[in-house]
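Researcher: Let's do a round of design. I'm pasting the structure tokens now; please hold your answer until I've finished.
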């Protein structure tokens, strides 16, 4: 969510294709097949675990790559932007535009042409207004709410002190009457949530049993307690670039865990070892190097 925004400039809430839900189902299937393979080979069964959070981190792919020698300054700059953004009155769109431009400037340091952040990154043309399944700005960040049934909607309203007589209305009712009522409810909820920060509302809503989580940015993930507990941030090493961080494996295997190994090799780093495995002797490898067939 931290990479996208809606037309009001806040993080875009749930909508469209449920990539993380579908992806988690696919990872479950992969985990089951892998565990069955191990059982057939060893006779040993095991418990496997996946989570929506793990899938979301894994799908960041290259976005999670952090090379300490190259990215530390950018990481610190992102943290500083997040620290001051709300106090400066920046909308979410301005934050992610600034992040995107920072990365582009880094990739094109000598260019003199203006860098434009494509609008397609974060401005969908339309969305359904639904006040109980969306992202709201709070006093110090953004909070995602998921009150998807009548009981949870009542708990949510009571917990934050908002009155809504239409909580029994079906989520499938998209009539104009319901739309405009929900728009008003959404504005009331937004005004209330802005009065306190994420930590306050997390405590209030979790005590009431209402699902909610803060919107985290990429720079938050490397030190996130949940990401660390699930082993989703791997610290690796490259021969030329030094230490770097990457996303860990999203499937947890009880008996055959996937653990961090060696980092990604530099170009040609393992060429000699691979050739030796295939029977090439030292003289043959030397000739290949002399002919510049290998590095």
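Researcher: That's everything. Go ahead.
Model: Designed sequence:
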């Amino acid at each position: 969510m931290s990479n996208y925004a809606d037309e009001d400039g806040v993080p875009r809430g749930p909508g469209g294709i449920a990539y993380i839900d579908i992806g988690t189902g696919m990872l479950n299937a992969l985990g089951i097949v892998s565990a069955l393979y191990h059982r057939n080979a060893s006779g040993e069964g095991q418990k496997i675990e996946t989570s929506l959070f793990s899938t979301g981190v894994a799908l960041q792919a290259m976005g999670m790559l952090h090379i300490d020698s190259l990215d530390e300054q950018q990481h610190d700059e992102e943290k500083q932007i997040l620290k001051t953004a709300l106090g400066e009155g920046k909308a979410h769109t301005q934050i992610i535009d600034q992040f995107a431009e920072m990365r582009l400037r880094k990739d094109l340091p000598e260019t003199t042409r203006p860098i434009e952040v494509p609008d397609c990154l974060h401005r969908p043309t339309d969305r359904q207004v639904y006040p109980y399944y969306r992202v709201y700005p709070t006093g110090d960040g953004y909070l995602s709410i998921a009150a998807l049934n009548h009981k949870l909607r009542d708990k949510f309203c009571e917990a934050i002190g908002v009155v809504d007589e239409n909580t029994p209305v079906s989520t499938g009712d998209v009539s104009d009457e319901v739309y405009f009522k929900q728009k008003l409810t959404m504005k009331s909820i937004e005004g209330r949530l802005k009065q306190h920060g994420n930590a306050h509302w997390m405590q209030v809503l979790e005590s009431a049993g209402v699902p909610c989580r803060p919107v985290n940015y990429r720079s938050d993930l490397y030190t996130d307690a949940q990401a660390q507990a699930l082993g989703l941030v791997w610290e690796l090493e490259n021969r030329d670039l030094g230490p770097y961080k990457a996303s860990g494996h999203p499937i947890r295997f009880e008996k055959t865990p996937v653990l961090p190994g060696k980092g990604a090799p530099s170009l040609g780093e393992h060429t000699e070892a691979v050739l030796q495995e295939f029977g090439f002797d030292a003289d043959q490898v030397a000739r290949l190097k002399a002919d510049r067939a290998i590095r």
